[in-house]
Amino acid sequence: MSSILIPLVSTGNVSQLCVDLVLHSGSEEFQFVKELDSTWLHSFLGPLDFVEGTSKPLYHESKVSGKQFTTPLELFYSKRLNLYVLQQRSPVIAGYENQFFKEVIVPLIKAYEIESVIVLDSAGALDPSVPFSSTNYQNQFATAKCQLQSLDNISLQFQDMLSIQDDKHSVVNKVFKFDSASFQESFSADQSVFKLFHHLLCQSDRNLKSITYLSKIVHEGDNSWDAFQVCERLSLMIENLIQGQLTAPVSWKGVYGARPIASGFDQGIYS
Amino acid sequence: MLSFKQWQNDQLPRHQIDPVIQSDPYSLVDKTSPTVTLEPANLQISPFNHCIVLPTSLKWLLPKSIINLVHIGEISGTLSNMNEWDSMKPVPGMYDTEDHIINSTEQFVIKYNLWKLQDTLIAIIDENEVKYPAIVSNFMTRELAQLIGGIEDMTVLVNSDRLTDLKNLSDLVPPEFITGSITNILLALPKKDAKVIVVPSEGPIGFEKYNFTVVDALVDEMSTLLCSYPSQTDYYVTECLKLWKLDGCTTTQGGLYI
């Protein structure tokens, strides 16, 4: 069954860090597939990331084809896992999430005939857009699943549902079942994931069989440990995802800035 | 004396009926996309053999006293229906003060000017992350990349606060990266062989400041591109430094480090 891993840009960028771990730990088997349209994202261009001392870093094959830089949105594929992995390096421009999901993500899932979608997310403990559970608010993770095979005429249910009057009774919340220990029990329309799931369900084709959601409560700061924890949790959902040790790329070293400490003050600028 | 009205007794506590934040009822509806126009529409690019793209914060590299630019056109980006503006704010509440309050009927326009210097096309990109919605810049830079994409020799200057020395884009090492409108042009260019100089800077996008080491290296680099004969170089360097100092002195103390 072909699957895709989608990291949403959210608190602490934990989803992106987790995808970094997945891609760079399995750099020998993950192939760069293509760059995706970044019209709806903030711009980003950087050098190709790698793990020090690896004989086959990520992009080892694409370098031959002339790929020089990393871009905001890239797709990778592992044949062993039959898994596509999306890496999103910059956030969607606020207000344009609908266009991004409808014009980039949903067509991608259709084009590659994806059967299973796994979405990574994170939430700050005080995030006003997350409807926290009144009983499980101390738990670290939230997981939800939707089996599309068990639903009939899902697209019909979505018609006339563009205007949300009540998050809790929206179709997205009707079809997703949260685990009993999740820190949230439903999705709020203010969460990006709500928009993604709405468009995914609304426009899904017959190939798509299941959608899984995994979110973690985080506090912004050094979120590398959160990423390792999400990775461990993710490996319970995707069998044999990680073989060996989780390794972080060199870019992580500069999370708190690689610049030398300023020693002077020249023309009003630290130098 | 306290007085209770009968209907108040029947009311549920607020937290039981209302979510803390009301969801936007139109959150699944597409936002308006910007429109981009090129003036003049039939701008001919074929006479140009070189192209230089730089942000407005580096305009001091083009002193009027020595570089005689001729205006040849402009690209405009318009975002209307600004009642949607609320959700596009980079920081909530950012525009709620003084004259930044935008009426629902108002349009938002950004312009990039195109100039000519002999057979060189110069595009000056107006960046301002505080004022300009990123989506407008995204659409405009894609249009510009399409327009100038065919020019053989291209030099692009882009700011970055992630490094300390002047570097070519291909020499960056993780976690260094670039962002902003000019990065968007690079992403949209059909060919990836442009010479890209990453200029170390400090401050928000559109309000960057540069230290002397960077300015010195940059002026040297640009003099080889812009000066037609060697004796012009000294004058060019003097003029650039003068403009940079004027530019720096007027705004450096304006709030960056207060």
TrEMBL record, chain A:
Signal peptide: none annotated. One of its GO terms (biological process) is proteasome assembly. This is Proteasome assembly chaperone 2. Involved in 20S proteasome assembly. Keywords: Chaperone. The keyword Chaperone applies. One of its GO terms (cellular component) is nucleus. Component of the 20S proteasome chaperone. It comes from the Eukaryota. The keyword Chaperone applies. InterPro entries: Proteasome_assmbl_chaperone_2, Proteasome_assmbl_chp_2_euk, PSMG2_sf. It holds the Pfam family PAC2. Belongs to the PSMG2 family. It comes from Kluyveromyces dobzhanskii CBS 2104.
Automatic annotation (TrEMBL), chain B:
GO terms for biological process: proteasome assembly. InterPro entries: Pba1_sf (IPR038605), Psome_chaperone_1_fun (IPR018855). This is WGS project CCBQ000000000 data, contig 00102. Pfam families: POC1. It comes from Kluyveromyces dobzhanskii CBS 2104.
